[in-house]
Structures are given as structure tokens and as C-alpha cells.
Amino acid sequence: MARALCVYKGMTIPIPWQDRFIPEPNSGCWLWDGALTRDGYGQVRIKNVNHRVHRLVWEESFGPIPEGMLICHTCDIPTCGNPSHLFLGTPQDNTRDMMAKGRFKGRSWLNAQKTHCPKGHEYTERNTMTFNGMRSCRQCMNERAARYYKRKRS
Prior knowledge:
Layout: E1 5-8, E2 11-14, E3 21-23, E4 30-32, E5 43-46, E6 49-52, H1 53-62, E7 70-73, E8 86-89, H2 91-100, H3 107-112, E9 128-131, E10 134-137, H4 138-153
Antiparallel strand pairs: 1-2, 3-4, 5-6, 7-8, 9-10
């Protein structure tokens, strides 16, 4: 666990956020040794405001971050603070980067990984109907229609 304070000659001194990185020799990452956000990014509190550390590193190294822009990691390590591993990008750039590296795990990606419908029928070309980008199982639709007409006849 990271130490927020250092004891020096009997005095407690805060450690500057810049000194709380641990170099990782194999990847070149500078790993944050402090508090983390829920999604794993380095975080530091300055004047009662939480800041993501990779954004502070960017601003210290390259200047202000334009509005609407993100600081993305080329190394995909959220705790990395090496300025050479950071790049400025739009949300679309970040999504493109995630998809290119196979890290995008959104709902559409998860659904595309499914090979069978919830009832266990296989999604084959013949058994799958697509409407507005969504898949439906033909066998389930036929069974549902049969139940509906059976109830209607009764």
C-alpha cells in the first residue's frame, strides 16, 4: 500500500505526487503507487479535488488538455504515468484504439460472442434473423408464434 506521508527528522512530510511512481523495467511503464479510482486509474487529491494522475502527467509534460479530449495510454495500463506512453485523443480515438487492440468489451461485443440463443438454439445462418442490427432465433420465434396461436384458438 502506498504511503501518503513520509517521516523525516520527526516531521511528517507529504510525498509529492511526482515521486510516487515505480518504474517497471520490462515495459517502460511508470506504475502509480498510490490511490486508485474504481476503474483502476491512479488518483491523487490536491486541494480537496481528486485528479487522475495520467492527466496531471500530461499537463505537466505537454500543457493543458483541450476540452473534450482524453489522455489515452498506448500501453493500456491505467496506472502508467510515463509521458511517452500517453497520447491525446477524442473519445472516438480511444474506442478505435480499444477495438484495434481487442480490449473493447461493450454490450455489442459481448452479444457478438454468443453462439446460442438463451433457449440454447445455435445461431446459424439459417436459424438467425437480423433486424436493426439485432439477432433473433427463428426457432424461438416459431415456438412463440405456435404458443400464441394455440392460446388464441382456445
